């Protein structure tokens, strides 16, 4: 997550936006309210619409779909509030990895505004930030997986792949251990080499 985030207010001018994008080398600038809460996003593509459609002087495009017409409407914008896409897609700073991935997949933006408990902007998150979790050290993955494993289960990790070995009393316990290991942040896959003494799942189905 990028914590050094440049943001602008609702009334920031068009040139203020261009300056923020260029000086900080970013492609997205959050728009925040006076309390620092994100209310929208402005991207470099939004700003470029000014030149693409000559400040809105061109006629409304008849072809190209809704996205092109949306860019045309933004071409006449003079402030961040007029140019931004709202509402801003947000995610809590303490949200689990899988929640962040789903939010990114559902959002129309390539970035999410990370907010604290007061809904104030504290960072920006992209797929690049989330993917970095997949390079978590094996030792850290093993420590977390082992901490959540029932007694009798040994855990080893190589290249992010978690292998569970050992014997437990019930099949349900073994399957629960596998699911828990699959949820460990950074786990690439789980190899199930567990044995169990009694198949309680089949017994309950009869």
Strands, helices and their partners?
Elements (H helix, E strand, L loop, with lengths): L7 E2 L4 H11 L3 E5 L5 E6 H9 L12 H10 L5 H4 L6 E3 L4 H10 L4 E5 L5 E6 H5 L6 H10 L5 E6 L2 E10 H12 L6 E10 L1 H6 L1
Order of helices and strands: EHEEHHHEHEEHHEEHEH
What is the highest CATH level, the class of the largest domain? Alpha Beta
CATH architecture of the largest domain: Roll
- Counted by DSSP, the helix tally is 9
What are the segments in which pLDDT stays under 50 over at least 5 consecutive residues? none
For the largest sheet, list the strands in their spatial order: 1-2-3
Summarize the structure in words.
The protein has 206 residues and is α/β, with parallel strands linked by helices. The chain folds into 2 domains: 8-133, CBS-domain (Roll), CATH 3.10.580.10; 136-205, Histidine-containing Protein, Chain: A (2-Layer Sandwich). 37% of the residues lie in helices and 26% in strands. It has 9 helices and 9 strands. It has helices spanning 14-24, 44-52, 65-74, 80-83, 97-106, 127-131, 138-147, 171-182, 200-205, and strands at 8-9, 28-32, 38-43, 90-92, 111-115, 121-126, 153-158, 161-170, 189-198. The protein has a 3-stranded mixed beta sheet. A 3-stranded mixed beta sheet has the order 4-5-6. A hairpin with a 5-residue loop joins β2 and β3 (38-43). It is elongated, with a radius of gyration of 24 Å. The protein starts with 7 loop residues before the first strand and ends with a helix. Pfam families: BON (PF04972), CBS (PF00571). InterPro entries: BON_dom, CBS_dom, CBS_dom_sf, Diverse_CBS-Domain.
């Amino acid at each position: 997550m990028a914590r050094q985030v440049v943001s602008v207010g609702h009334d920031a001018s068009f040139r203020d936006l261009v300056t923020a994008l260029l000086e900080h080398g970013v492609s997205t600038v959050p728009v925040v309210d006076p309390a620092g809460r994100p209310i929208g996003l402005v991207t470099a593509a939004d700003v470029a619409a000014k030149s693409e459609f000559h400040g809105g002087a061109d006629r409304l495009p008849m072809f190209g779909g809704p996205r092109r017409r949306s860019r045309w409407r933004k071409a006449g914008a003079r402030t961040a509030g007029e140019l931004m896409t709202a509402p801003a897609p947000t995610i809590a700073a303490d949200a689990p990895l899988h929640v962040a991935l789903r939010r990114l997949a559902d959002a129309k933006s390539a970035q999410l505004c990370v907010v604290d408990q007061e809904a104030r902007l504290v960072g920006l998150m992209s797929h690049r930030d989330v993917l970095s979790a997949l390079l978590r050290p094996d030792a850290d993955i093993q420590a977390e997986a082992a901490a959540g494993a029932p007694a009798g289960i040994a855990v080893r990790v190589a290249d992010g792949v978690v292998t569970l070995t050992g014997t437990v009393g019930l099949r349900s316990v073994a399957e629960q251990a596998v699911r828990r290991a699959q949820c460990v942040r950074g786990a690439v896959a789980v190899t199930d080499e567990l044995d169990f003494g009694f198949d309680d799942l089949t017994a309950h189905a009869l």
